[in-house]
Design a protein that fits this description.
This protein is mostly helical. It is built from 16 helices and no strands.
Length: 409
């Protein structure tokens, strides 16, 4: 029942990749809290804190696609070493502005935007590594281990940041994050070169458009991305948590915190008990089922009469999300020729980053008419219906079973 750790045991290179990712994920979680605290201290404005998301979102969407094109043009190992080093430098600049108490809001926004742009190049390139380091049957386990490190970072990062900001200051948080990026770069240096198979494709607009056309005409890849958008755009509930906590559960800040933490709790449990996922052969059907379970969890949130019932429903949704992420990553990695892996990983990164944001906008708009509980229930029901529609309309996904790594096309 426990998580399959064979990827860490069988591949020293994957082990290096995972260790670097795990530490940098914690550092990223710490920096996110420190930036929000600094912005609020400067402005006393939730709107200004929310604008950090905008400063993050724009470069993420713009650079995600181009980052994938760059990853299909150069040695991906060298690219990740460069982006990790760049991220360490930007974080050191964040540490310097905090230590010098410059109190410049525009500088924080600019540094966060640069950091997000570098991350949008780094992430698609990193996602191309596991298929080159591991046999196909271990890719779901590798995806689970990577997602497990994210789940841990969601708890550990904010807790460490809060303790350090209170006792030492934000500059210490940024300095530790810079060290984690340095560690990530060092771990990647020990991995074999990762040039794209076939010599690569020159990066540019043409390369980006080729990747989009490939995804559009490949029914399995398009269906996987649509399944993710179905879950996030139709049933992302985060924007509803403060109002639900206040008006439905009467718990204020404590209830809000529990609602935000609940999906992470379910996700962490699912990641720890993910051993059976390695034996699933009908991965497409499992992905669609997990998307439907996410929708059921959000529907249950909208119908929950008590806070603890809502927490339970969100935990179920969080566990389903882990299954979705694991099989989405495995299917995309195995179904994409290596020459396109960077661009498809970049597109997956953009979908994964943009879908939840659009979903939160949708949830807020529907809540203005139907209330937060109604918005959650309607979104969950729409997600379940969408999963059924996708299962009917995309036989390539419904029938998918892993075979071998895709070759050049």
């Amino acid at each position: 029942m426990l998580a399959d750790v064979r990827p860490l045991q069988t591949s020293p290179e994957f082990r290096r990749l995972w260790i670097g990712h795990a530490f940098s994920a914690v550092g990223t979680g710490m920096t996110g809290v420190a930036v929000a605290v600094q912005v609020y201290d400067l402005t006393a404005s939730s709107l200004a804190v929310g604008a950090v998301g905008l400063a993050t979102m724009i470069p993420t969407l713009l650079m995600g696609l181009f980052g994938g094109a760059i990853a299909d043009a150069v040695d991906r190992r060298r690219l990740v070493v460069g982006t990790s080093s760049g991220l360490a430098l930007v974080t050191l600049l964040l540490a310097a502005q905090a230590a010098l108490d410059l109190r410049q809001l525009w500088l924080l926004y600019v540094l966060v935007a640069v950091q997000s742009g570098l991350s949008a190049i780094d992430a698609p390139a990193r996602r191309t590594f596991p298929p080159r380091l591991l046999p196909p049957e271990l890719l779901p386990a590798a995806g689970t281990l990577i997602h497990f490190s994210w789940q841990v970072s969601f708890f550990v990062g904010p807790l460490l940041a809060g303790a350090l900001i209170t006792s030492v200051g934000a500059s210490a948080v940024y300095a530790i994050d810079a060290l984690t990026y340095g560690l990530a770069a060092w771990t990647i240096i020990g991995i074999r070169p990762m040039p794209p198979e076939g010599g690569g494709t020159a990066a540019g607009v043409r390369s980006v458009l080729e990747g989009l056309r490939f995804a559009r005409r490949h029914p399995l890849i398009a269906a996987v991305l649509l399944a993710d958008l179905n879950a996030t755009v139709l049933a992302m509930p985060h924007a509803l948590f403060p109002e639900l906590a206040d008006t439905r559960f009467g718990g204020g800040a404590l209830a809000t915190g529990l609602l935000y933490a609940a999906p992470g709790i379910g996700g962490l449990v699912a990641a720890v008990l993910s051993g059976p996922l390695g034996g699933v052969r009908r991965q497409g059907a499992a992905l669609l089922l997990a998307v439907g379970c996410w929708g059921v969890g959000i529907l249950g949130l909208g119908l929950s009469p008590t806070l603890w019932a809502a927490v339970g429903c969100l935990a179920v949704a969080g566990a389903a999300d882990v299954v979705t992420v694991v099989f989405r990553g495995a299917i995309l990695q195995l179904s994409t020729p290596d020459a396109y892996r960077g661009r498809i990983s970049g597109l997956d990164f953009v979908v994964g980053a943009g879908g939840p944001q659009l979903g939160n906008v949708r949830a807020g708009a529907v809540a203005a008419v139907a209330g937060p509980a109604g918005a959650a229930a309607l979104g969950g029901a729409a997600c379940v219906l969408g999963a059924f529609v996708l299962a009917s309309a995309t036989p390539a996904l419904r029938r998918y079973r892993p075979a071998t790594v895709a070759g050049p096309e």
